[in-house]
Design brief:
269 residues; alpha+beta; Aminoglycoside 3'-phosphotransferase, Chain: A, domain 2; five-stranded antiparallel sheet; 9 strands
């Protein structure tokens, strides 16, 4: 097999575990009911000048979605210490803010289909904000591509994009990048999470009230995730079954407790 035809499995993520591969300068990944809508959104973002999102290239003869490969490394568990670099945290917030700005005024196709799954990824609070734009909604570490200089150069896996309160999108990203929990954080990594949350929110220029809502949405997301992860595992997803066996539910509850205990300091009130 020639090098440009050889398939290399790309690590990271759980929903598509082992099913995303690099083939030369392209990526092949599973298609879903929302894939056409996702590609419509990606083309909009590229048209708005965002160079850090994957370019849709159609599908192949195995009905896989094909996308332009973004060179770099996505942090995967157990996360290395460089994944918690302060500049990388700022980079992620800046890219997210650019995504939000580019999504302003986006008009989805009339037959738009958004992500669904066993259980439901989105708590009701995410869909009931004062404003709604199409957001990524899964901006965890494995979905950010980091270049050789340690700077964020790409955002991938838009499968969960859909219209939400943008503060929900920030809540999901902060949960992973601050981070609010210790799952998959290596021993010896010492983080000032209150300060890191403040840094992330400052990039977005959030008020104290907005920071408080981000925290409330983080709790709503985590509370909702416990039942959603169980539903995904029950539906046969082996990666989510392994996540439950690793102690996810206990870690999730401990994270919620930590956010509630530190709510005032995190919100800066």
């Amino acid at each position: 097999m020639r090098d440009h035809e050889r398939e290399i499995v790309l690590e990271g993520g759980r929903a598509n575990d082992g099913r995303v591969v690099r083939i030369g300068d392209e990526v092949a990944r599973p298609t879903y009911p929302q894939t056409e809508t996702v590609e419509h959104f990606l083309r909009h973002l590229i048209g708005r000048g965002l160079e850090f999102v994957p370019e849709p290239l159609g599908s192949d003869d195995r009905d896989r979605q094909r996308l332009r490969f973004i060179p770099g490394e996505a942090p995967t568990p157990p996360y290395p210490s460089w994944a918690f670099d302060e500049q990388l945290l700022i980079d992620v917030a800046r890219l997210q803010r650019r995504l939000h700005r580019a999504a302003e005024g986006y008009e989805p196709p009339g037959a738009a289909v958004w992500a669904t799954s066993a259980g439901d990824y989105f708590p009701a609070e995410a869909l009931a904000g004062r404003r709604s734009i199409v957001c990524h909604n899964d901006l965890g570490m494995p979905n950010v591509i980091v270049g050789a200089a340690g700077r964020a150069v790409g955002v991938v896996d838009f499968d969960y994009c859909r219209p939400v309160d943008p503060l929900f999108d920030i809540a999901v990203a902060a949960r992973h990048w601050v981070p609010f929990g210790d799952l998959d954080v290596r021993d010896g990594v010492d983080l000032d999470r209150v300060r890191r949350f403040g840094t992330f929110c400052s990039v977005h220029e959030l008020s104290g009230d907005d920071r408080g809502r981000v925290l409330d949405l983080s709790v709503a997301f985590l509370d909702h995730a416990r039942s959603n992860i169980v539903a995904l595992a029950d539906a046969g997803n082996l990666a989510f079954r392994a996540l439950l066996r690793s102690g996810y539910e206990a870690t999730n509850r401990a994270t919620v407790d930590w956010i509630r205990r530190h709510h005032r300091a995190l919100a800066g009130t």
